[in-house]
TrEMBL record:
The chain crosses the membrane at residues 37-64, 109-129, 141-171, 178-200, 212-233, 393-414, 426-448, 455-474, 480-497, 523-541, 547-568. It comes from the Eukaryota. Pfam families: MFS_1 (PF07690). It comes from Cinara cedri. Keywords: Membrane, Transmembrane, Transmembrane helix. InterPro entries: MFS (IPR011701), MFS_trans_sf (IPR036259), Proton-linked_MCT (IPR050327). The lineage of its organism: Eukaryota, Metazoa, Ecdysozoa, Arthropoda, Hexapoda. This is Major facilitator superfamily domain. The keyword Iron-sulfur does not apply. GO terms for molecular function: monocarboxylic acid transmembrane transporter activity.
Length: 604
């Protein structure tokens, strides 16, 4: 049975900020992700390459630190591990600001400035180490300044691809984000061993030139990616005078089609587009997703690429106004009635991006305003500190702090102290770990992301606990073959975990409207914890000169993170039992095209 009640149009799509100051001037823009096509696939490939280069280059920096097994061939004053700690902090910290920047200026600007900062980081790092750093006062400070520049650039590029692929793919979103993870793990597999080869057989300077060349390759990505085009949808009527203001160009005119016996015009929203009729505060249209994907003509209108990127500047996309935009898994698991859905249906409320008339005017006439609505609305949502009053979120944040403070420590200290491992042994161990990452991510994708079935939280918790135990047990042996096995197991379990890291949203522990807020706060938690975890591991190594203590430290943190996450399972069970007693009501939002209102439908 269905229970319906009319809700204010657009309020369900607004990120929760504590108030609704835009309710009187709302309009809707239909985002119709192409979910395919050559330009969208090319964007996936570019995301794969970008992650491969940036993560591979970052991981390679630990090879320049003489404390973890390198020889006199590397410039000894370079604090490479501390450099990586600052990069990790800035990389996660800038994510929220990158989202606001994307919402204001778009994906191409974010990719361009991010790649420019990344190239500047490698270039200046090479010059400072070579010529300048020993002659400057407070020379070590410049390493940390450059690390901040590099971390910001890397974070901007990676977040731009995360949001962009979520905008271009809905039905196949899990495939798109799989490409990003596989690119990251492939870079970790290929670039550090080749860097080690250049250091040993050439010089460390030649390996820096390799990193500079690879990073420079990302400078062209902003030109080649496809970006989504928002569609303004209005009812086609013979007496609508505003339709005559549209230009004669076929693309500007859009196309006319009939949906539910209503003739509608779909117009790409550009700076020249005249709004159809008065700007009334209701959603223009909500459509069945199957109809959208069957209509290839509309799908072709919905991307800008290299061939038409300068043809009419588009406005109104505002990707961060969509509640699910940063969810990188199978969106089917977000539906309330999973068992009833055998195909992708009625996802229109998620595809509609609710903007305001002030948003549109701001893009047209005031693009230089730094404190724009697009920026402040996103920052207020993602930095809403009231989420910390929720005990369930505190447990989730604690688990993420423990997990991300330890996730890369075994890899960064894989060489051990000087003389503990040969170069070949260290690289073989790293390759085994990276193959484990790739295999674990692939198996996790096949088992969990190709299905709409929810993942039990105890399953996620047990994977993390096993991951931590693999590192603790690794400290008990000096047998090289067993060390390879344990590192391969560690990589496999970490890659497997990445396929189900957002499982908490499949159990209604947190509503989808909180996802942007939670994601922003978790980014801050990961920034602080990743930096603090690496700095603590450095202190442990310097105080004990035993790499085994670092592995034990990492293993204990990961296992503790798994235990913390497992604490959410009893909460989930109590909520499900309570829901069963009252009829298991799950709210869902759909659009009633006849009354032009959103309706809250509760499946019983």
């Amino acid at each position: 049975m269905e229970k319906s009640s009319t809700v204010s149009s657009g309020i369900g799509d607004l990120s929760e900020t504590g108030d609704t100051p835009y309710a009187g001037t709302l309009m809707s823009v239909l985002m119709c992700p192409p979910d395919g096509g050559i330009w969208s696939v090319l964007t996936c490939v570019l995301g794969f390459v970008a992650m491969m280069i940036l993560d591979g280059v970052c991981l390679s920096l630990f090879l320049y630190d003489s404390r973890v097994g390198m020889t006199e061939q590397v410039s000894s004053p370079m604090p490479a591990l501390e450099h990586l700690a600052v990069i990790g902090f800035c990389h996660y910290f800038i994510e929220t600001f990158s989202c606001a920047y994307i919402n204001r200026y778009g994906f191409r600007y974010c990719l361009f400035f991010g790649s420019t900062l990344s190239v500047t980081w490698i270039t200046l790092l090479k010059l400072f180490v070579d010529y300048v750093v020993d002659e400057l006062p407070f020379g070590q400070f410049y390493y940390f300044f450059l690390a901040a520049v590099g971390g910001i650039g890397i974070g901007m590029v990676k977040m731009a691809f995360v949001v962009l692929l979520s905008s271009l793919f809905v039905v196949k979103r899990e495939f798109a984000h799989l490409c990003l993870h596989m690119g990251s793990f492939t870079g970790m597999l290929l670039i550090p061993p080749f860097t080690e080869f250049l250091i040993l057989n050439g010089s460390w300077q030649s390996s820096m030139y390799l990193h500079l060349g690879l990073t420079s390759f990302t400078l062209m990505f902003w030109l080649l990616v496809a970006t989504p085009v928002p569609l303004y949808v209005c009812e086609e009527t013979s007496d609508d005078e505003n339709l005559h203001h549209l230009s004669d160009d076929s693309e500007s005119d859009g196309i006319v089609d009939t949906v539910a016996d209503i003739k509608l015009r779909f117009v790409p929203l550009t700076v020249e587009t005249q709004l159809c009729g008065s700007c009334r505060p209701y959603v223009s249209v909500g459509l069945n997703a199957n109809w959208l994907y069957a209509n290839k003509t509309i799908r072709r209108m919905c991307v800008r690429n290299l061939t038409n990127m300068f043809k009419g500047s588009t406005i109104g996309a505002r990707p961060m106004y969509q509640q699910d935009i940063m969810f990188d898994g199978n969106v089917m698991v977000l539906a309330a009635n999973l068992k009833a859905l055998n195909r992708f249906e009625e996802f229109s409320a998620k595809m509609i991006s609710v903007v305001t008339i002030d948003d549109i005017n701001e893009e047209k006439y005031n693009r230089c305003n730094l404190c724009s609505i697009a920026v402040t609305r996103v920052l207020k949502s993602m930095f809403n500190m009231s989420i910390w009053l929720d005990g369930k979120f505190v447990v989730l944040a604690a688990s993420n702090a423990l997990i991300y403070s330890s996730c890369l420590l075994p890899v960064l200290f894989i060489k051990g102290t000087a003389g503990q491992k040969t170069s070949a042994e260290a690289m073989i161990t790293l390759i085994a770990c990276c193959f484990g990452l790739l295999i674990g991510r692939g198996i996790g994708f096949y088992l969990h992301e190709t299905s709409s079935k929810g993942i039990p939280l105890y399953h996620v918790s047990s994977v993390l606990i096993a991951n931590g135990l693999s590192m603790i047990v690794c400290c008990t042996t000096n047998d090289f073959s067993k060390i390879i096995l344990f590192f391969g197991c560690y990589g496999f379990l970490w890659g497997y975990y990445k396929s189900m890291q957002y499982a908490v949203f499949q159990h209604c522990i947190f509503p989808l409207k909180k996802f942007t807020n939670i994601r922003g706060q978790i980014s801050l938690v990961r920034a602080v914890s990743s930096c603090a975890g690496l700095m603590t591991a450095i202190i442990i190594l310097e105080e004990t000169s035993e790499i085994g203590y670092v592995y034990e430290f990492a293993g204990l943190l990961t296992a503790a993170g798994g235990v913390c996450l497992g604490l959410l399972e009893p909460v989930c069970r109590r909520q499900m039992n309570a829901a069963n007693k009252v009829g298991s009501k799950h709210p869902n939002i759909v659009f009633d095209i006849k009354t032009k209102t959103l309706r809250e439908i509760i499946i019983v």
